[in-house]
Structure formats: structure tokens, C-alpha cells
């Protein structure tokens, strides 16, 4: 475990030096091709760094923060776009905005749609989710005696809770260091009433925002020249889901170290097609919207079934989930040892 922590520290020291270079040198260059060329070596480095990590959690977090978010935001920065423009006044802010899934919280206007401006998670909800995750880790000790579908359901819940709690912790630390309020990354995805609601307003909102800026909007602008406005919008939706699938394939490659099987890409393409179809049906107004309880149950069922079928297939086949559970149980044992001493 000591070696894993040392590798993590070395990876992030390299990342901090690289981002400092972008802040002090690349930012001085004129926007466009020249600045892009200066940033490309950093983007390539951020694709290589996760290969030095063997821990599932350290690798997944570094891929999300560096290989995905930082690279996409730096590409936008090369053209004076995205959250890094205008240039933050301090290096610390530049680093946080570049590689972390954060956005400064703005006071919404009175007429704003509630779901577009999620409220911070109440403390009692946070406490309940931490408690549920702790119970899950204890239940895993008896997973050999549980039916397979129960274990899969518990693992799906575990992924959601762990991802959200990690990002909440990151947001809390950054909010304290920078002295500002941070937008929540999740907005109660289990309350989604449609796939569009789930993916664009509730699940991993910072990644959705980055994909919107780097993929959806450029693709939509390009296809407006040859397609109708609706057709261009649907092209942007499909492109966003396809790129998200490719980035998840990259994430799985780093964790599994085996060639991709493209199942997770199929998962996102399927959800992209389903979301586009849902939007098209809504616009025709042919069908009366179902009750929120019915539509919510359908959405959660669709996400869960396709998730186990396609999204988790590589993870389960290569026993990555067992390795991840083992790391969580190790942390739990260390916490018990620390509190008892």
C-alpha cells in the first residue's frame, strides 16, 4: 500500500508541475494553434500518468481528473473557451478549475428551473449516505452467501454512493481552500423522471458540462450547416454520448489493462439513442407524459438493467469489483485500527 501512495504522490506532483507550466507559459501565448501546440505535450502526459497507478481507486480518480477533465478543459483553454477563461488570478484556482469537477456556485435567478440549479446536499442526507455505504461494506463480508442479483444491486448502489461522496469531499475541501461555494456534482439522480433529466440535470453534472462545451456544441454548430436544427441537436447528443463511452473505455483500460471490448461504449450509444428518441417524442406531444412515479421507475430500471448488462460487464468479468471492494475493506480496517489505538 505504501508503494501505491508513493506512486500517487509522484503522479500528482508531475500533474501540478505540468499545470503550472500551462498557467505561466502557455497562457502567455496567443490563443489558437500556437497555444494548442504548447498544451498538447501536457495532454499526452496526462494520458500516460495513470499507467503508473495500480490501485483501482487511485487510477479511476486520476483518469477522471487528469486524462478526462483536465485534458478537455485545457483544449478549450487553448482557444480561450471553457472554465479556464478568463485566466484565474491565482495558480491554485487554475489548478483546481483545470482538473477537478467543480464550478463556483452562482445565485440562481427567481425564474430559474430548480433542477438546473441543484441545492447543496443537506447534512442529514450526507450522513445517511455515509451510513449506507458503511453498511454496504459490512454486508460485502457475507456476499458469498447472497444471490448474485442482490450482490449486483449492492455494487451498483456502492458505485453511486462512493463516486458521489468522493466528489462531495473534493468539493468541500476546494470550497474551504478557495473560500467560495461549489456547485453540487450530483442532483439526486434516483429522482430522475426521464433519461434527459437523468443525464443532463442530475448525474455527474460537471462532466456533462465539459462534454457540452467540448463535444455537443461544436458538433451541433457543424451539423447546422447540413441538417435541420433538430437534426443538428440530435447529432450533438449522440456525439456527446459516444465520446463519453470512449472516455469510459479509456478508464476501464487503465483499471483492467486489457484491450477494450466496447461494451461500455455500446452502453452510452444506447443511452444516447434512447435519450434522443425520448426528446423527439416529447417534442411531437403525441403521448401524454406518464406519472412521475411511473417514469422514474422506468428510468431507474432501464439504467440499472443496461448498466449491469453493458456498463459493468468488463468490471465484473475481470473481477475489478472484487479488487475495489478489497481496497474499501482495507481502508475500513485501517480506520478501525486508527480509532481503537
UniProtKB/TrEMBL annotation:
Its main location: membrane. GO terms for cellular component: membrane. Residues 183-269 form the Wax synthase domain. The chain crosses the membrane at residues 7-26, 32-53, 60-79, 124-140, 152-178, 231-255, 293-312. It is a multi-pass membrane protein. It is found in: Membrane. GO terms for molecular function: O-acyltransferase activity. One of its GO terms (biological process) is lipid metabolic process. Keywords: Acyltransferase, Lipid metabolism, Membrane, Transferase, Transmembrane, Transmembrane helix. Signal peptide: none annotated. PANTHER family: LONG-CHAIN-ALCOHOL O-FATTY-ACYLTRANSFERASE 1-RELATED, LONG-CHAIN-ALCOHOL O-FATTY-ACYLTRANSFERASE 3-RELATED. Belongs to the wax synthase family. This is Wax synthase domain-containing protein. It comes from Arabidopsis thaliana (Mouse-ear cress).
Amino acid at each position: 500500500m505504501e508503494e501505491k501512495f508513493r506512486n500517487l504522490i509522484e503522479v500528482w506532483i508531475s500533474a501540478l508541475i505540468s499545470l503550472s507550466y500551462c498557467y505561466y507559459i502557455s497562457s502567455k501565448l496567443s490563443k489558437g494553434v500556437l497555444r494548442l501546440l504548447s498544451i498538447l505535450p501536457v495532454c499526452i502526459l496526462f494520458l500516460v500518468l495513470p499507467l503508473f497507478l495500480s490501485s483501482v481507486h487511485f487510477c479511476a480518480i486520476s483518469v477522471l481528473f487528469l486524462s478526462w477533465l483536465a485534458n478537455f478543459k485545457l483544449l478549450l483553454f487553448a482557444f480561450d473557451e471553457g472554465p479556464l477563461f478568463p485566466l484565474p488570478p491565482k495558480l491554485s484556482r487554475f489548478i483546481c478549475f483545470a482538473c477537478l469537477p467543480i464550478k463556483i456556485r452562482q445565485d440562481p435567478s427567481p425564474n430559474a428551473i430548480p433542477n438546473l440549479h441543484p441545492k447543496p446536499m443537506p447534512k442529514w442526507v450526507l450522513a445517511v449516505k455515509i451510513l449506507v455505504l458503511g453498511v454496504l461494506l459490512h454486508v460485502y463480508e457475507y456476499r458469498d452467501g447472497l444471490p448474485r442479483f442482490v450482490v449486483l444491486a449492492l455494487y451498483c448502489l456502492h458505485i453511486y454512493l462512493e463516486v458521489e461522496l468522493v466528489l462531495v469531499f473534493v468539493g468541500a475541501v476546494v470550497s474551504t481552500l478557495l473560500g467560495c461555494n461549489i456547485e453540487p456534482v450530483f442532483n439526486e439522480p434516483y429522482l430522475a423522471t426521464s433519461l434527459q433529466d437523468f443525464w443532463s440535470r442530475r448525474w455527474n453534472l460537471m462532466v456533462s458540462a465539459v462534454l457540452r462545451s467540448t463535444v455537443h456544441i461544436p458538433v451541433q454548430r457543424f451539423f447546422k450547416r447540413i441538417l435541420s436544427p433538430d437534426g443538428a441537436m440530435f447529432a450533438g447528443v449522440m456525439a456527446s454520448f459516444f465520446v463519453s463511452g470512449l472516455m469510459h473505455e479509456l478508464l476501464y483500460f487503465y483499471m483492467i489493462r486489457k484491450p477494450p471490448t466496447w461494451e461500455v461504449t455500446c452502453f452510452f450509444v444506447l443511452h444516447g439513442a434512447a435519450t434522443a428518441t425520448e426528446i423527439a417524442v416529447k417534442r411531437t406531444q403525441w403521448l401524454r407524459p406518464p406519472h412521475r412515479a411511473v417514469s422514474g421507475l422506468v428510468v431507474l430500471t432501464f439504467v440499472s438493467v443496461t448498466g449491469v448488462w453493458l456498463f459493468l460487464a468488463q468490471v465484473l468479468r475481470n473481477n475489478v469489483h472484487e479488487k475495489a471492494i478489497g481496497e474499501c475493506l482495507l481502508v475500513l480496517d485501517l480506520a478501525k485500527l486508527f480509532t481503537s489505538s
